[in-house]
Amino acid sequence: MLTGHCLCGRISYRLDQDIERIIFCHCEKCRRATGTAFNSAALIDADKFTLLSGKESIKSFSSSPGVHRLFCGECGSPLYSARDAQPQSYRLRIGTLDTPINPEEKIHIFVASKAAWETLCDDYPKHDASF
Ligand SMILES: [Zn+2]
Ligand SMILES: [Zn+2]
Known about the structure:
It comes from Leminorella grimontii. Residues 2-118 form the CENP-V/GFA domain. One of its GO terms (molecular function) is carbon-sulfur lyase activity. It is built from one helix and ten strands. By secondary structure, it is mainly β. One zinc ion (ZN) is lined by residues 6-8, 10-11, 72, 74-75, 77. Residues 6-8, 10-11, 72, 74-75, 77 line the site of one zinc ion (ZN).
């Protein structure tokens, strides 16, 4: 079991599955949503994710039709995204985890959209767009 929480602590959650792959997304929307070079996420099963507190503080922004980015309305922490076309999955923002994880598999996506000032210095697979 993994747990996590937002910056202010109002929202906390539990995840009843392991994370086997981390996805670093460098697309323009993820850069804006995080305010930094890339978004670090993991594809998780929606039914393995349980909100423990703070449901009333969750806000959602649709960055594209059918794509919802959920975040804490108090502190602004991005928590996960959900897609209407893929209701069984969430994309968890793994920087909010309490539990240390370090899966072997990590990939970069939308590298073609990365910020000009960002230098990628690892050997993980890199995809120009999605994968
Ligand atoms: Zn918060
Ligand atoms: Zn992205």
